[in-house]
Each structure stands twice: as C-alpha cells, then as structure tokens.
Specification:
Elements lengths: L1 H32 L15 H13 L4 H22 L4 H22 L6 H13 L5 H25 L8 H15 L3 H10 L1 H28 L11 H23 L6 H26 L4 H13 L1 H16 L12 H23 L6 H11 L13
Amino acid sequence: MSQVLDRTRIQDIDALRGFALLGILVVNITFATSGFPIHVAEDPAYSSWLDESVRWLSTAFVDMKFYLLFSFLFGYSFQLQMEAAQRVGAAFRPRMLRRLGGLLVIGVLHGVFLITGDILSVYAIIGLVLLGMRRVKDRTALIVAAAIYAYLFVTLAAAALFLDTTTILDPSTAVAAAQQTTANLAGSFSDVIGEHVRALPTYGLSLLTVQGPTTLAAFLVGMVLGRHRLLKNLNGTEAVLRLIQLVGFTVGITGGLYYASLGGNGDTSGVLISVLTAPFLSAAYAASLLRFMHTDRGEDIRRLLAPAGRMALSNYLGQSVATLLLFTGVGLGLVGQVSPLETMGFAVGIFVLQVILSHVWLGNFRYGPVEGALRAVTNATAPSWRRIDQAA
C-alpha cells in the first residue's frame, strides 16, 4: 500500500510540473511568434476584439503564474533529492554543484540559440543560493521569502509613484523596434541568434527586478514544504486545499484582472499588483489540479500529464525547438503571421504532441533524453538512459 501511495505522490508532482509546462509554453510562444511582446508594444496587424480578448485572458490568468509553480516544484524536488542523497550516504553538495553547472550551460545555449529569454540559467544561478541555504531553519527560509516580496513591494511601489514609463516606453519607438525584431526573427539563423543576444539586457533587467527574486522566494517555500512532505499521500479531500482555492482564486483573479486591465507589463502599478497576487493564483491552480486528480475522472489526467512532467527539462527545451522551427526563418518563418488565437492553438498542439512523445519515450527509457545527460553530469558518470527492462 505504501508503494502505491508513494507512486501516486510522485505522479502528483510530475503532473503538476507537466501542467506548469503548458502555462510556460503559452507565455513563451508569444516571444517566438512576434517581436512585439518583448518591446511591450501592441501589434497593429492584430488589434481586433478577438485578438485583444485572447491577449487579455492570457495576461490575467497565465502571465507570471506558471513559472512560480515550476519554481516551487524545483525547490520541493531539491529537498527530496537532498534527503535521498543523505539516505545513501552520497555527497550532496558536489553533486548539486555539477548539476547546476550543467543546467547553466544548457540554459545559456538555450537562450542564445533557441529562444528569447531562458529560465534554466536563472535556476542554475539562484540554485546556488538555495544550496547555500539548504540547512537554514524553516522560519528563516520563510522570512527571507517574505522579505523578498517586501523588497519588491517597496521598489515597485516607488517606481509606480515616481517613474514615468511613458518617457521610456514610447509607443511609436516600441512599434518600430518590434517590427525590426520580427524581421530579424524571420531571417537567417545568425539573424535569429543576434536578436536573442540583443534581447539579453532587456531580459536580464526583468530577471534582476522581478523574476529572479520571486523565483528564489518560490524555491525557498518549496524547500520548506518539501521538508514536511506537503504533497505526500494526498487524497484530494483535505480542507487546506479548499482553503487555498478560496483565498487563492479570490486574491489571484482580482490581481490578474487588475493587471490585465492596465495592459500587463507596460504599467508598473499593474506589475506590482501581479507580483503580489500571482502566487495566490498559482497556488489555487495547483490545489484545484490536486483535488481533481484524486477523483475517479481526474486519475486519468494525472496519468496523462505525469510523463510530460517527469521529463520536463527535455520538454521545455523541445518547446523552444518547436517554436524555432515553426516561427523563425530557420524553419517555416511564420513569425508575425499568426494571430493571438492561432498562437494559443499552436501552444496546445505542441503540448499535446509532447505528452504523446513523453509517454512513448518513457515507455522505453527510464529518463528523458536531456535528463539522462544531466544525470550523468550530476553523478560524474557516462550518460545512460536505461531501458525500462534494465535494473534500476
């Protein structure tokens, strides 16, 4: 019975990670299909009520939510990996340093060659902080996480009060820059790489001001809850899950609607509200999926999503390969030619294909293709993906 419960726990975590991958793709694909999002500009070619509605819904309910869930699960899994290493007497610190180093290399290559922006390199760098804090008390970790959000509140509130974003984000200049970015993405591979490299300062500013600090906070919360096995042996009827839904949806949707109504990243006060409320909506999404997966109908969803989450790194990179080949001049060159609704359709299609391929791959191998390579770096051994008929 305990083995069944443990397997269910692992599937819960993997299914949540797979669900987060879909949300991350919905956001990331917009930076591959158009040069306008990175310049915080509206594409005049797609300004109908339907286009605006799709963008508005994505801004309210997806933006800034799913990377937090993914980051929380990273911190949770970090704790499980540390305890597993301790049980077998393995040295955790050098193993994790190798793993983070491998992740950094993958992330840098990903951000330069495949897509505008990257989260893996951020995870590698901030993972060093998490590694250094792995033995702090729960209270200390949570205080640091709270202090991060207090810092963001003060800095973003000050920016909202005293910074005139209209002098920085001139609409006509932004549109011209966006059109040039779109043209570059439709060009040769060297043009695409050049555009990715030019976007690094803009992306780096976002990491320093918002995404990096909130990622660390999510890491720390995940680590603490991993210590207490929050996701272990859930049955979906826990009162705390219902409470998370009630509070999370109330606060999170209110903040998301406010953020979307102000145009998303173009308004500092909207960003402030989204930063403060996005964790609530992320938690509500996770609680809802956990409750649903433990119903008779939801069990199939857990089994469907779990393989995609189990090889999340391969799928994350695979999403970028797919968008590169579909939208840039390296492949079909559809950049600037798809509407927001069509973009969402592409995202769903790519994810469905990944779910299918994940089931096929893990039906034959124990590790995803990139996971196997990173595992070899972590263990300082030759790569081995291990077929399922081999001993563990």
